[in-house]
Design goal:
single chain, about 130 residues, mainly alpha, about 75% helix
Length: about 130
Amino acid sequence: MLGCYDLHAATRTLVCNQFWRTLGKEERVVDEGHWTDRDRQIARWYAPFAAIGLALLTMIMVLIVIPLGTVFVHLLWQGLSGDFGLRFWDALGSLLLNSAQILAFVYFTIRNYVRSRRVRSATPAPNLLGVS
């Protein structure tokens, strides 16, 4: 919509470069020539929004997700350490459903990585010299 090629990477590089320049570590600065002029132009005003979004996500993780995860693990432990009543089966079902989601994510991530490696190795390198 904004006519950018890779706004996220351009914004991240712009912010990191400013950080390294502030610390006086010029050797850590990355060349910004990898992105289009439009990417660099939009990244300048997009950077504060990205920073605010990152701060909000961090706050949500610290204030909501971690406490909820702690309560979940505690309730799960209580349910699995009791007798084989409804609470046990509820905890076991919850554990299985949540584990299935994580295992599915890991499986598909590895599968996609392996497929992308196969495609890259099967694709012949381009003939840049134009020699047959």
